[in-house]
Amino acid sequence: MAPFELAEPRSIAEAINLLDGEDGRPMGRGTALMLMMKAGVLRPSRLVSLNRLGLNEIQVGPGAELWVGSMVSLRTLEKSDIVRRGWPVIARTLRTLSNVQVRNVATVGGHLAHGDPHMDLPPVLSALGARVTLEGPKGKRSVAVESIGTGYLETSIARGELITRLEVPPLGKRRAAYLKCTTRSVDDWPALGVAAVLDLENRDFSLVISAATDKPTRLLAAQKLLKGKSVSEALLRQAGEAAAEEVQIESDLHGSAAYKKQLLRVYLGRAVNEAREARR
């Protein structure tokens, strides 16, 4: 691994200033970054630690939305009483995200900024309508989680920008579920992930997949087919078929495109049914 400078700023403004230039990289807890540096994929001359910026709180905002600092660990998010009561789908999703050792270290901001389409939280947060606050040299902006991923390990986060906060709208009377299919252990990278958020009163559906595509992808055709209708198994099969034909499925070591397409046909219906049966 190439030598590097480690900077430990005490304010967001200082961190942004230290990231100025071509070779600086922000570092949360280094879960993925260190692996990429050891492999020679990244060779930054400076790492800017975010550990002292006070971005580690979970609270409920004035509009009953969930506020999560970007340096909150995935394990802390999973165990939070606030999250379990108000957004249980997030806590359930985290239980099979990698393993406890990784969740103890990995952070919310790093998870979202990494841009790997196999991550479990981005499809769930996208389906819930979550947003992140980005702060950088040009100021502060709010961005939908759904728009962060632009391709495999590629994001819309500009150089020098930091994710400082995740904001998740109130779940309210909506019901939500996330299902994934792994080819090995339950906490392995998924071959397919499907997030479903249902507004049963208005018969509205928010459906997002991951792992089978190069970024979390909304299933617009399936949503349109289901909207305003009473759910039946026949309708779910039609929605699954529409979804499989709508999106560009990617082959990888977790399965071929044909295999993942068939998974999508089946798992979309299962995710919707699980969301319908969820208490929240």
Describe the structure.
It is a single chain. The chain has 280 residues and is an alpha+beta fold. The chain has three domains: 5-47; 58-168, Uridine Diphospho-n-acetylenolpyruvylglucosamine Reductase, domain 3 (2-Layer Sandwich), CATH 3.30.465.10; 177-277, 2-Layer Sandwich (Enolase-like, domain 1), CATH 3.30.390. Helix content is 34%, strand content 25%. The chain is built from eleven helices and 14 strands. The protein has helices spanning 12-18, 33-38, 74-79, 81-86, 88-94, 100-105, 108-113, 121-128, 220-226, 233-246, 257-277, and strands at residues 5-7, 24-27, 46-49, 58-60, 66-69, 131-136, 139-144, 149-151, 154-155, 162-168, 175-182, 190-199, 204-210, 217-218. The strands form four sheets. A five-stranded antiparallel beta sheet has the order 4-5-10-6-7. Strands 11-12-13-14 form a four-stranded antiparallel beta sheet, with helices on both faces. Strand 2, helix 2 and strand 3 (46-49) form a beta-alpha-beta unit. Helix 9 runs antiparallel to helix 10. The radius of gyration is 19 Å and the shape is globular. The mean pLDDT is 94.
Radius of gyration over alpha carbons? 19 Å
Low-confidence runs of at least 5 consecutive residues = none
Q: Total domains, how many? A: 3
Largest sheet: 5 strands, antiparallel
CATH topology of the largest domain: Uridine Diphospho-n-acetylenolpyruvylglucosamine Reductase, domain 3
| Secondary-structure element pattern, one letter each | EHEHEEEHHHHHHEEEEEEEEEHHH
What is the top-level CATH class of the largest domain?
A: Alpha Beta
CATH architecture of the largest domain: 2-Layer Sandwich
Mean pLDDT: 94
